[in-house]
């Protein structure tokens, strides 16, 4: 496949069936070139012909022959590695899940080799469960906790795991015999929300995700923002107090020392490894609740003034937060950002549902292996 194939597929994904005339206009291709390219996609089975009455594209009474994406033609695997959890899915070409699986593990024994072994087992089980033909699996996207290299093959660092330069793509490609692309896990969720969720019509989307830590991902004009070519948006490590508690990153007073699973669960006297409805439990402790809200409002306002998102999406525990939490952020942030942003900024819960991390990883694989036009 080539770049023009990718452009055609993206239009069909985002805007539905199109006539060849409309595709030629939007891709700036000649009718002959467009016909040649769509013929290839038809043979491959990723698009299908259909009749559609498209005004202006055909004489009156004669419907134009259009083409449409076939979402079930191919599949991808998405795997999200969180702190003590692995979530995996197999999706179609619109990132709709065919099946999901999850596994918890002890972070105290989380050497990369052991985690890679768990990923291989869970993916093999999903392939067997869905019955997907391996020849129709175009690749695997892996969401990892921390920045990745510019070639998107390695997890450069993970504070919570003390991992450095882990060659996930090489190892998983050898074990699973399929192409692999690696992405910062919250950036992958932001990408999925931008492509397939609530952020489809936004220019800049900031996704904020609370589980063990507080991560963020930014998508601008449809592209993940990677500072320096590999960096992640480390909202959780914004310093909010000068002489605060020591953070896992080595600094003191980071936002994560107030707003992380560990800090909130400890304050609410919860000892469950993976608590549900965490913020609803914390709301019963006004001091902890108010501090978390105050510092998150400050951090979001700072990020908004720096990055200018028009949509902020909450994921993880934040997506499950009481409405009072969301309302406080919606009221508290606009007065603290520059005037042009006040009228356009929206704050919403994630629309991805359970397994958002795995869906995000699948979205990264779809972008890299299918919609970019990269050859398979």
Secondary structure topology:
Elements: H1 3-15, E1 18-19, H2 20-27, H3 31-44, E2 47-52, E3 64-69, E4 75-81, E5 85-91, E6 97-104, H4 112-130, E7 137-144, E8 155-158, E9 163-166, H5 168-176, E10 180-184, H6 185-196, E11 204-210, E12 214-220, E13 223-224, H7 261-267, H8 278-282, H9 286-307, E14 311-316, H10 323-332, H11 339-342, E15 346-349, H12 356-371
Helix pairs in contact: 2-3, 4-5, 6-12
Family: Belongs to the ROK (NagC/XylR) family.
Organism: Mesorhizobium ciceri
InterPro entries: ATPase_NBD, ROK, WH-like_DNA-bd_sf, WH_DNA-bd_sf
- Beta content comes to 15-25%
Global Rg: 22 Å
Low-confidence stretches: 53-58
For the record, give the distance between the C-alpha atoms at the N and C termini, rounded to a whole number.
Answer: 7 Å
**Percent range of helical residues:** 25-40%
Order of helical and strand elements: HEHHEEEEEHEEEHEHEEEHHHEHHEH
Structural class: alpha/beta
Features of the shown structure:
single chain, 376 residues, alpha/beta, five-stranded mixed sheet, 12 helices, 15 strands
Describe this structure in words.
A five-stranded mixed sheet has the order 6-5-4-7-10. By secondary structure, it is an alpha/beta fold. The relative contact order is 0.13. The protein has helices at residues 3-15, 20-27, 31-44, 112-130, 168-176, 185-196, 261-267, 278-282, 286-307, 323-332, 339-342, 356-371, and strands at 18-19, 47-52, 64-69, 75-81, 85-91, 97-104, 137-144, 155-158, 163-166, 180-184, 204-210, 214-220, 223-224, 311-316, 346-349. 37% of the residues lie in helices and 22% in strands. The longest helix has 22 residues, at 286-307. It contains twelve helices and 15 strands. This is ROK family transcriptional regulator. InterPro entries: ATPase_NBD, ROK, WH-like_DNA-bd_sf, WH_DNA-bd_sf. Belongs to the ROK (NagC/XylR) family.
